[in-house]
Amino acid sequence: MYKIPAVIFAGGKSSRMGEDKSQLAFLGYPSLSEYQYHRLSQLFEKVYLSAKSDKFCFECRFVSDNYAVHSPLAALVSVFENLELPELFILSVDAPFVDEQVIGRLMEERSEAYDVIVAESPHGKEPLCGIYSRTIFLEAAQMLKNGDHRLTTLLQAVKTKYVKFATNEPFLNLNFPDDYQEALERLL
């Protein structure tokens, strides 16, 4: 089991889905959040769910996203404000195909020489699948204060290592209702 904690970001607006995707049933679980939490708990000693409020109907470690704005950067800053962690693995709740092999490759690349280790698929950088060190906190907090919420900007401002993957498959996100249906069919 990995000693660093994992944080699942589940606080987005889900505007493209039309409903809170973190609460959609998935693979025999009442919610995608519970599926992801259970799955990552098999790999990490501690797993947290990050959201604006504790909307989860199962026992879990919860970390509050302190900011009114909905952005992964705000969630990241909140996690480092709320938890005394030197580093953490983050994953978006809507990326259920990021598997043990992907996580393992990222973990193998951990190094004090980098502030962030993130996946890069043929589609592009995957900032919501990576390992973030507390060393990014001041830069991230300043960006948040300035109203710049792009994780890609943060990745350019700090020492980031991109771990290339040959396929997009593990990084498919459930953004739209069709994505959700396709994922369910794919898992049958």
**Main sheet summary:** 7 strands, mixed
Measure the end-to-end span: 28 Å
Count of domains = 1
Strand order of the largest sheet: 3-2-1-4-6-5-7
CATH class: Alpha Beta
- What do we call the CATH topology? Spore Coat Polysaccharide Biosynthesis Protein SpsA, Chain A
Class by SSE composition? alpha/beta
H-E string: EHEEHEHEEHHEH
Q: Characterize the overall form.
A: globular
CATH superfamily assignment? Answer: Spore Coat Polysaccharide Biosynthesis Protein SpsA, Chain A
What does this structure look like?
With 188 residues, this protein is of the alpha/beta class. Strand 5 and strand 6 (124-133) form a beta hairpin. It contains six helices and seven strands, in the order E-H-E-E-H-E-H-E-E-H-H-E-H. The two termini are 28 Å apart.
